[in-house]
Amino acid sequence: MHSSSVRYIPCGWAASPHKGKWQQRFGVLQAIQTFKKKVAEEPNDGANYLSILIDCFRSYNAEPTPYAYSFIIRYLFQRHMLSHLPPVLDHLEKAERFDVPQRIFVSVIRSFGRANRLHDAVDIFRRIPNFRCTPSVISLNALLSVLCKSKEGLVLVGDVLLKTPEMNIRLEASTFRILIKALCRNGKLNSAIEILRMMSLHECTPDAKLYSLVLCSLCKQAGSDQVVEFLEEMRNAGFLPNALEYNSVIDVLIREGKANDAYSFITLMRLEGKRPDITSYNSILDGFILANDFQKADELFDEMLLIGLFPNSATYNTYINGLCKQDNLEQSRQMITCMERAGCKPDIETFNALLAGYAKVGDMAKAKELMNEALDKGLQWNSHSYEILIDGFISKGEKEEARQLLMEMISKGFTPVSSTSNALT
């Protein structure tokens, strides 16, 4: 017979370890809620957030959890109270006994990056083992992503990488991708290529995207010799460029006046089973015309038609410009008609090319007639149109006509180049 003052508790329930765990979890949840409430009540720089955290958990006979530390760290970053962060991290490192999850350090590193505290980001990364946590490529990549966003951070990357063997971190393809992207973005292309070649030493294989990234960066920033050399390296590695990448290489060669070399890539594309597009041909056509190699320009134009490519506005504008450079103005006008019949609408630059041809031979009457024709077709003169006409009239000594056009140009909101204004003063 049990005493009425003593509550009967089934022995199975009393001994159940699950009840203890449940009570512990409940206490932790209550402590966290109390902590959040107290923090919200004291949003000032003078509060001791670490003491508040410890007191809240102590009142529920519980220990602060990784989540609780994650919350307080995030809270301090969000409110820019970074002066409170060192004691929190020190307590987490030296007073706690649980293994700190790596995700907390990834978050801290990224937050330091957003606050432009790069040295602090490096420091916390190096301290990770002190928190009973094994750093991995995940935390390394988080740090490198932060450092690679600025030139100041890039300076620190080398030292970080030198320390990774001591931390038993193995570099992965994702690590190299971060580094190569950053180097390409900052114009350090030789270093990017060097790191790409180093990947195999770390049992990593570059993929097509990495080669493409470096090739495209070279096309924007390097000369044709280096571009073509890397293209060959890319092909030898088993990665054939796509049509867009070949077009980028062709553009580099055209910029340097190497139209014949550019055309050789048309042949190479065909050998690889790729069909050169109108963009490829337009670039090379422009290259031949810039080099005054009009015979090859004509042959290329005919080749385009033979293989079934349809010229677009850029094609016609380039070809008409070539005809005008040869003073073949009547054929240029006929090309505008052909263009319209093919369903390709001329734009103002089409007329500007022919306009420049008439201005070059001094036929300003035909030039004005042509520009009125453009207006009849619903096109509006642009600053280039006015410059061509004004320069043409100045060359013929008809300064009054030039002045009137200059006034009209200014009234329409266009700003004349200084040489045009000076010639009329």
Automatic annotation (TrEMBL):
Record-given protein name: (wild Malaysian banana) hypothetical protein
UniProt KW Transport keyword: no
Lineage summary: Eukaryota, Viridiplantae, Streptophyta, Embryophyta, Tracheophyta
Ranges: PPR repeats: 172-206, 207-241, 242-276, 277-311, 312-346, 347-381, 382-416
Taxonomy, superkingdom: Eukaryota
Alphabetic keyword roster: Repeat
Pfam families according to UniProt: PPR_2, PPR_3, TPR_24
Family: Belongs to the PPR family. P subfamily.
Residues annotated as domain Pentatricopeptide repeat-containing protein-mitochondrial: 157-263
